């Protein structure tokens, strides 16, 4: 009888512990985090007018440009731009200049990037940075 009781207690403990072990997953989407991104998601020209920045991603590098809002027109600050290599790990984009950004996509053309305590909303532009300036000045 004692043998059966011990077996039942062990079985009960396993049933209680099993859900705790299966919830410990490395998948960031299972804990409410954003899903992983790929290079094909991020390659292109992205801009934010909230903080006046443009990011241009290619296969291996990202270039950060500063926009100048002149009130009635936009210009690129041609004396300030930074190009650096980047990598992607899950939903994080890492490079030598900007550090680490957590990225999520609100749609195919809307991206939310969180760097430190700053949140930026970027819009995809299908063209070069110079075509973006023309587009913004035509608005």
What does this structure look like?
The protein has helices spanning 2-22, 39-42, 129-138, and strands at residues 44-48, 53-57, 61-69, 74-89, 92-95, 99-107, 110-115, 118-125. The longest helix has 21 residues, at 2-22. It has an 8-stranded antiparallel β-barrel with strand order 1-2-3-4-5-6-7-8. The protein has 3 helices and 8 strands; from the N terminus they run H-H-E-E-E-E-E-E-E-E-H. Residues 1-32 have low confidence and may be disordered. The protein has a single domain, classed as Lipocalin (Beta Barrel). The protein is of the alpha+beta class. It starts with a helix and ends with a helix.
Shape: globular
User: Helicity, in percent?
Assistant: 25-40%
Distance separating the two termini: 84 Å
Quickly count the domains: 1
| Unreliable stretches | 1-32
| H/E topology pattern | HHEEEEEEEEH
Q: Whole-number radius of gyration?
A: 23 Å
Strand fraction band? Answer: 35-45%
CATH hierarchy class name: Mainly Beta
Short summary:
With 139 residues, the chain is α+β, with helices and mostly antiparallel strands. The chain is 25% helix and 45% strand.
What are the SSEs and their pairings?
Blueprint lengths: L1 H21 L16 H4 L1 E5 L4 E5 L3 E9 L4 E16 L2 E4 L3 E9 L2 E6 L2 E8 L3 H10 L1
Antiparallel strand pairs: 1-2, 1-8, 2-3, 3-4, 4-5, 5-6, 6-7, 7-8
